[in-house]
Design brief:
The protein is of the alpha/beta class and about 400 residues long. Helix content is about 45%, strand content about 10%. It folds into 2 domains: about 270 residues, Alpha-Beta Barrel (TIM Barrel), CATH 3.20.20.70; about 130 residues, putative tagatose 6-phosphate kinase domain like (GI Alpha 1, domain 2-like, Orthogonal Bundle). The longest helix is centred in the C-terminal third of the chain and has 22 residues. The mean pLDDT is about 95.
């Protein structure tokens, strides 16, 4: 399997986003740097019902394929994955219904040839009195053993784990590090599941908590004291670690994760956070030229967020307006696909691309001018160039940490 070969000597950034403007920039970067590209989506973003992005696994693939075609990005360098696939979108339903939907969900991802599958059954359903490892592994086994999944999953890279951080971070509780004993227990339990399925020597990934998270403006850095024993267990057991919520960590912390056998580094909100910053920066330029006939993108995003509060009400204090546009939790990302915001971004694109920035460099802040000139020779539009400037360093950081040489 190609993904197995890729992680023998290096690790892989896992770009977990469903924003196609961001995905376009990631693919462009990977093309010009000749890098492999792993893009993942969560079950909340993409599922058989459309998720909050209104995309099914099939439509998500089709849209990415279209971007690849436009960029002339080689399909052999593209890897797609599904994240938190399981009962998560149906946690408010009965366990019976949630499990039925989970099997359908993963089956749909496999039909579209996603090569990396994270089976996450650690979610408590409406009629669950409690959730424990025994229930989690029993449900994982049931999913993998279903007729729709068993044959197709054999050649895919599997990720599992009961120590799964909250999707999107923002947990205010104290971080509970995954202990050595827990890793051994989960490894043994999952090996039983794999052996029962006749996947005896299958390599897999385990999600564990190394001790990191991010809040509105704070980033908690993991400590790697006494981690060598955990690394040895994974090496001897022929499995790797996957790190979730790595957003906003330094490249040296990310590199340390890789050195400790974390072969997949998941990043999502940091990408859309920087994309939003690019939108706001372009809006600042746009207002100077178009005055009253501009996109008003900031106001439109805020208006959209206050109309539909479910994606931020448990995270933000509505009186603190600063959080809505500046929190690292980036709850804005849930609204960028809405019709009203999409329309505003489309106006911004048209306006910013009409401006002759090449001969009006004074419109570009001194801090970004060097980067703007660096991409001047590319065939990118103004919108794409500025977007790349804001996202470039995030991509560079992750590939550096994963062992790739970036010019």
């Amino acid at each position: 399997m190609k993904i197995n070969n890729l992680i023998k000597k290096k690790a892989l950034p896992s770009f977990c986003t469903s924003n196609f403007d961001v995905i376009q920039t990631i693919l462009y970067f990977c093309k010009i740097k000749k890098l492999p590209c792993l893009i993942e989506c969560t079950s909340n973003q993409v599922n058989q019902n459309g998720g909050y992005t209104k995309n099914t696994p099939k439509t998500f693939v089709n849209k990415i394929s279209k971007i690849c075609k436009n960029l002339n990005f080689k399909s052999k360098n593209l890897y797609l994955g599904g994240d938190h696939l399981g009962p998560l979108p149906w946690k408010n339903n009965s366990k019976k219904k949630a499990m039925k939907n989970s099997i359908k969900l993963i089956g749909d991802f496999l039909k579209q040839n996603y090569c990396k599958i994270h089976v996450d059954t650690s979610i408590k359903c409406k009629d669950d009195k409690y959730i424990n490892n025994e229930i989690i592994f029993e449900r994982t086994k049931k999913i993998l053993n279903s007729s729709e999944i068993r044959k197709k999953i054999k050649n895919k890279f599997l990720i599992i784990g009961t120590e799964v951080p909250l999707s999107g971070s923002g947990d205010t509780n104290k971080i509970s590090l995954t202990k050595k004993k827990q890793i051994i227990e989960e490894y043994k339990q999952f090996k039983v599941v794999l052996n029962d399925l006749k996947f005896k020597n299958k390599k897999f990934g385990l999600v564990i908590e190394p001790g990191m998270k991010y809040m509105h403006s704070k980033v908690v850095v993991p400590k790697f004291k006494k981690f060598s024993e955990k690394k040895r267990i994974s090496k001897n057991g022929n499995f790797v670690f996957e790190a979730h919520s790595t957003d906003y960590q330094s490249k040296y912390t990310l590199k340390k994760l890789v050195e400790n056998n974390f072969k997949f580094l998941k990043v999502g909100p940091e990408l859309t956070y920087n994309y939003a910053k690019a939108l706001f920066y372009m809006h600042h330029i746009e207002k100077k030229i178009f005055n009253g006939k501009n996109s008003n993108v900031e106001k439109v995003i805020l208006r959209s967020m206050f109309r539909e509060r479910k994606y931020w009400k448990d995270y933000y204090n509505k009186k603190n307006k600063n959080l809505f546009l500046n929190s690292k939790l980036d709850r804005m990302r849930y609204y960028l696909n809405s019709d009203i915001v999409y329309k505003s971004i489309t106006i911004l694109k048209k306006n910013i691309n009409k401006i002759d920035l090449k001969n009006n460099l004074s419109l570009i802040n001194q801090a970004y001018r060097g980067d703007f000139l660096k991409f001047q020779k590319s065939n990118l539009s103004n919108f794409e160039k500025i977007k790349l400037i804001f996202i470039y360093k995030v991509l560079q950081k992750y590939f550096f940490a994963c062992g790739y040489k970036i010019n």
